[in-house]
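Project channel, design review

CF: Before we commit to the Kandleria vitulina DSM 20405 constructs, I'd like one complete example in the thread so the newer folks can see what an input/output pair looks like. Taking UPF0473 protein IV49_GL000301.
RD: sounds good, go ahead.
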Amino acid sequence: MDNDLKITLQDEDGQEQNYFIVYTFDNLDNTRHYTIYTDYKEDDEGNISYYAMYQDDTDEEGVFHPCESDEDWELVDSVLSSFLEE
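CF: and here is what came back for UPF0473 protein IV49_GL000301:
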């Protein structure tokens, strides 16, 4: 994990949280740039949570949006599943 790219994001309470970038990719028409990230913490069942955000071509650098739509999550789930199978 030492070679992983790290990001720091603020949570809902304004506290900074550190995460690791797992994978980045663009959608098919290259208008959205997605970042999948995690904190690698396991829950009680041993599962790791993954999160995603995206940046539109029209956004300023450093402006990201949380993935909220079913369409975004279907794409992210598909890419993440393929990535984790490798």
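RD: helpful, thanks. The chain has a mean pLDDT of 89.
CF: The beta strands are 6-10, 16-26, 32-42, 48-56, 65-66.
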